[in-house]
Amino acid sequence: MCAMQRLHQDMIDSAPQPEHRVRGMNRPPCAGPFAPTANRKRRTVLGPSWFAAVMGTAIVANAAVTLPRLHGLRTAALVVWLAAALLLLVLAVGYLRQRALRLHAGDPVMVQFFGAPPIALLTVGSGALLLGRRLIGPQAALDVDWVLWSLGTVLGLVAACTVPYLMVTRHRFAPDAAFGGWLLPVVPPMVSAATGALLVPHARAGQVRLALMLGCYAMLGLGLVATLLVLAMIYGRLVHHEAPTGTVVPTVWIGAGALGQSVTALGALATAAPSALAAPYARGAAVFALLGGIVVWGFAMLWVVLATGLTVRTIRAGLPFAPTWWSFIFPIGACVTATGALAARTGSDAFAWLAVVFYELLVIAWVVVSSHSLHHAARHMRRRPTGGHADRQTGEPEARLDGPTVLKGTVRTTTDGRPISQARVTLLDPAGNVVGKTLTAEDGSYAFTDLERDHYTVVAAGYLAQTAPFTLDDSDHDAFDLTLAHEEGWTAPCR
Predict the structure, then answer these.
(1) For residue 443, is it left (φ>0), alpha (ψ between -120 and 50) or beta?
(2) Rounded to whole angstroms, how far apart are CA atoms 443 and 433?
(3) Cα 289 to Cα 270: distance, rounded to the nearest angstrom
(4) Per-residue pLDDT in tens (0 to 9) along the chain, 495 residues
(5) Closest CA to 290 of 342, 340, 339
(6) C-alpha–C-alpha distance, residues 162 and 156, integer Å
(7) How far apart are the C-alpha atoms of 308 and 302, rounded to whole Å?
(8) Model pTM score
(9) In this structure, what is the dihedral angle of CA atoms 340, 342, 343, 345, given to the nearest 10 degrees?
């Protein structure tokens, strides 16, 4: 995953592991002497990737409203929407309290998931308008949607602009680094377009309504063009490098979700167009939604087939649970809403029944992923209280590490295999929570101790480039020293 080595720990069980797992207590062949260890009491840091659970749960509720063939699901959908709203509140409070924004912004993988919170806000907000009116009343539901849509749209545009900027200026990626998570920062504007279309008829007539309508189309264009660019990079990575394995595979589905969301947005905007645009342009929006929607939908189905093949292949080899499993849910939900929108616009029975099939698959996938997520959360809640982040010890390397819960290795260059000293190594759990941090020793080695049985990700980071002006005079030779140092929170992938 973006030049990060997924180390699947099995500290206790001595049974043979799938080939993509590495025993945490085994030392890699290239490892040198032990580095100073990062001993710590565990403190879970909530990652933005968990907001995908809100996205997935909310779209299960919202998609039920769009189904052309199934009725009587509104009560169940309302209950699911309430669960999504409660989960959004809990995660938002927990994430803001931990103040980990800078830490996650510096991580080249975790920063991609900054697109998840805006989508969570937008989907819960649209659910308030579609389902919440029965519970809180029409006006309150409309007010809630306006607030959540506005906040989600602002955060989504910030993510869509900021994350690519950080990728260009601060992070460094290997040629095979592209993965489905790169789509998350650019998808929120398309979700804003689809959910904003529901608010167009409720906006004040005149320039305000027109501005909202045109803004939604602009955000659709932003998200769709950026999505196509990223999909080209992901496809190039799939073709020219080894196929993804492990927990990165579910993120391939995000491509289908992004394409499906664009079809949904086209349909929703075409429905709202008569209230904001002149008659010729409203008819043009309807034609664009039908013909353009079918074209993009066909590409989305190709991506679904590709993602399905990779998923089946990975399940056979072993697919451990991680928050990336939620990457299955929202994309399938977007396929439901996209297919339902085309069914309503064309009157096609084939589209109608296909939307029902997609929804049935969505519910099954949601039940499976939700149960695994609850089990994962319960297991982590049973862990002992925590005290803080790991810090690198300044003492001499230990000659021996007690206990079996040890992870160690060496950071080397990709060109000649030389060990890299003073590289920052960060250990993440499956949720993207920082478990520990340390710096490599002179021989490039590092070690983490006191680990629990779990799946982990190791991120190795080098130094930021530094520049300084220099004038060469007439002397025979001059000396000019440069100092390289880590910037707190900055990471870059290292093979």
Answers:
(1) alpha
(2) 27
(3) 6
(4) 333 333 333 322 333 333 333 333 333 333 333 333 333 444 456 889 889 999 999 999 999 988 876 667 888 999 999 999 999 999 999 999 988 888 888 888 889 999 999 999 999 999 999 999 889 999 999 999 999 999 999 999 999 999 999 999 988 888 888 999 999 999 999 999 999 999 999 999 999 999 999 999 999 999 999 999 999 999 999 999 988 888 889 999 999 999 999 999 999 999 999 999 999 999 999 999 999 999 999 999 999 999 999 999 999 988 888 888 999 999 999 999 999 999 999 999 999 999 999 999 999 999 999 998 888 777 766 654 443 333 333 333 333 334 445 677 888 776 667 788 888 888 776 656 677 788 888 777 888 766 666 667 777 776 654 444 545 555 555 554 445 555 444 444 333
(5) 342
(6) 10
(7) 10
(8) 0.73
(9) 120
Tally Cβ neighbours within 10 Å of residue 287: 10
What whole-number distance in Å separates Cα of residue 134 and Cα of residue 141? Answer: 9
From residue 30, alpha-carbon distances to 167, 445, 447 in Å are 30, 9, 13
Closest residue by Cα to residue 404 from 435, 455, 438, 450: 450
